[in-house]
Amino acid sequence: MKKYYTFLVALVLFSACKKKAEKTVEIEAEPTPDFIVAFGSCNMAQEPNPFWDDILAENPNVWIWGGDIVYADTDDVDRLRSIYAMQDTVAGYNKLKQEVPIIGTWDDHDFGLNDGGSDFSIKKESQQVFLDFMDVPADSERRKQEGVYASHEYEVPNGKVKVIVLDTRYFRSELVKDEESEKRYKPTTDPEATMLGEAQWQWLEKELNGSDADFNLIMSSIQVLSGEHGFETWGNFPLEVEKLENIIVQSGAKGVIILSGDRHISEFSRADIDGLSYPLVDFTSSGLTHSYFSFSGEPNKYRVGEVVSDKSYGIINLNFEDREAEFRIMGDNGVVLQELKQTY
Fold first, then answer.
1. pLDDT tens, residue by residue, 53-92
2. What is the pLDDT of residue 11?
3. What is d(CA 179, CA 82) in angstroms, rounded to the nearest whole number?
4. What angle (nearest 5°) sits at the alpha carbon of residue 68, between those of residues 193 and 308?
5. Average pLDDT, the chain
6. Which of 17, 75, 151, 285 is 20 to 30 A from 109 in CA distance terms?
7. What is the pLDDT at residue 13?
8. Which backbone phi and psi does 317 adopt, to 5 degrees?
9. Is 222 helix (H, G, I), strand (E, B) or coil?
10. Is 112 left (phi over 0), alpha (psi -120 to 50) or beta?
11. What is the distance in angstroms between the CA of the first residue and the CA of the last residue of the chain?
12. What is the pLDDT of residues 173-196, one digit of tens each?
């Protein structure tokens, strides 16, 4: 009787497994990206960053610093250098440096002055400290130019990616304080006010006009499309926003994507630009070690999805054949907090 019972149990289990197997449907795996970009901003060297192992696990082709690499806020060059040096002692970051190319720009806190611009007293010295941290060779042309802007090209079997890194600090005109509302700043009416300065504008136009890349990523430390919140944004210089959009359109550059940081929140903004055959996306990723946990809302007419106020970093998966970019706001341990797909 015991043997017969055992046989019946085995038969039932076999039948159940067979039915389950019959219902199994093959799920097609997502295509492997041709090129992976990881980026982030707002990082305090003295605070734990939980993401370096996750970023490395993504196997990115490049890591882009979006600014506020460290929080120095000082006009003491030696102190500035020592705070950068502290970041270089972080084990997870050092491991990433050994395996992935590191590029990027600065923002106000690593520049040395909160909301600082062209009138910062040690901007020349600060530039050299930044370039030291980024391991830029002593004989590089970037050591001689004013500003930390640069372009980088990456070619893989299926296509090419260009990353254009802007400097929104060195030349930026004075911000206009908003005395009429609770916002910090308001748009300037000065037609001469600039975000990038004449030399950088000419350089950017040349970089886009001459680009044969399949995707062109522009790293701006501050947001470009979200301009209503009253903090630092390209929206404080409306004529400069118009100029940037016109240059992108007239260049005919393929797959232009804006990356930004600064805000201690992450979000996607997307706008239809006259003359551009695809929507312009501004992917904001911030911050790595601290974020705006008390965020309760702010206007952004270009926002897609919701604001992520948790600590996070950004991933962009690029596929050349489909001309598709997949944007992901990433949390700890590979958790996708939000994503957006865009065809170009």
1. 999 999 999 999 999 999 999 999 999 999 999 999 999 9
2. 34
3. 37
4. 95
5. 93
6. 151
7. 34
8. -100, 120
9. coil
10. left
11. 69
12. 999 999 999 999 999 999 999 999
Count CB atoms within 10 A of the CB of residue 247: 17
Give 67's DSSP letter: S
Count of C-beta atoms within a 10 Å radius of residue 142 = 16
Please give the single-letter amino acid code of residue 103: I
Contact at 8 Å (CB) between 289 and 48?
A: yes
Q: What is the pLDDT of residue 31?
A: 76
Retrieve residue 231's tokens.
């903090």
* E strand map for 48-200: 62-66, 102-105, 150-156, 159-165, 176-177, 185-186
E strands in the chain:
35-40, 62-66, 102-105, 150-156, 159-165, 176-177, 185-186, 215-219, 256-260, 266-271, 280-284, 303-308, 313-319, 324-330, 336-343
Beta strands in 17-99 (DSSP E): 35-40, 62-66
DSSP 39-51: EE----TTS--TT
Q: Do 216 and 190 touch, CB atoms closer than 8 A?
A: no
Give the global pTM. 0.91
Per-residue confidence (pLDDT) for residue 56, from 0 to 100: 98
CA-wise closest residue to 216 among 276, 286, 143: 276
Query: Alpha-carbon distance 270 to 265, whole Å?
Result: 16
C-alpha to C-alpha distance for 333 and 268, rounded to whole angstroms: 21
pLDDT score recorded for residue 9: 34
Tens of pLDDT, residue by residue over 218-240, are 999 999 999 999 999 999 999 99
Phi-psi region of 245 (alpha: psi -120 to 50; beta: other; left: phi over 0): alpha
